[in-house]
Write a structure and sequence with these properties.
The chain is mainly alpha-helical. It has a domain of about 70 residues: Glutathione S-transferase Yfyf (Class Pi), Chain A, domain 2 (Up-down Bundle). About 55% of the residues lie in helices and about 0% in strands. It has seven helices and no strands. Helix 1 runs parallel beside helix 3. It is elongated and about 100 Å long. The N and C termini lie far apart (about 80 Å). Keywords: Membrane, Transmembrane, Transmembrane helix. This is MTX1 protein. InterPro entries: Glutathione-S-Trfase_C_sf, Metaxin_GST, Mito_Protein_Transport_Metaxin.
Length: about 150
């Protein structure tokens, strides 16, 4: 019964769309986004039971509708062109370096700002402190360490 109702829903959507590009004319509306979000996975995904997918593929105007939206808004997925290649490891390549010539400088600057922020926090929270001491006549003064507990 569920498949029958789903097929009926697809048929009604197909009839409502007719030969229009979108449901309310030549520009997409929120209904188009909602319908596309349900139809595209149904049309493109591999499903264990393909009954509903086959029915959708038989409704040519809904298939054209999905293909049109995919090529218009997602050209690397449903259209002819492909997205710009990104290395899977996250490494930089020459095309990416040409895209942002100051990338290395920005990276260094962000590391320095982060380091300054961490050092500032360490000083302000008391984790690190600077103590000045007077220097003796020899120029050197031994460092004395205080113990918290003298003897146990």
């Amino acid at each position: 019964q569920l498949y029958r109702e789903a097929r009926e829903c697809l048929t009604l959507l197909s009839q409502r769309l007719g030969s229009q590009k979108f449901f309310f004319g030549d520009s997409p509306a929120s209904l188009d986004a909602l319908v596309f979000s349900r139809l595209a996975p149904l049309l493109k995904a591999k499903l264990p039971n393909g009954k509903l997918q086959q029915h959708l593929k038989s409704l040519q105007n809904l298939c054209n509708y999905c293909t049109s939206i995919l090529s218009l808004y997602f050209p690397w997925d449903g259209g002819e062109s492909h997205p710009p290649p990104h290395p899977p490891c996250g490494c930089t390549d020459s095309a990416e370096a040409e895209e942002d010539p100051h990338k290395r400088r920005k990276q260094l600057l962000s590391v320095l700002v982060g380091l300054a922020a961490m050092l500032g926090y360490a000083f302000l929270s008391g984790i690190v402190s600077i103590q000045r001491s007077s220097v003796g006549p020899a120029g050197r003064q031994p460092i004395a360490m205080e113990e918290e507990e003298e003897e146990e």
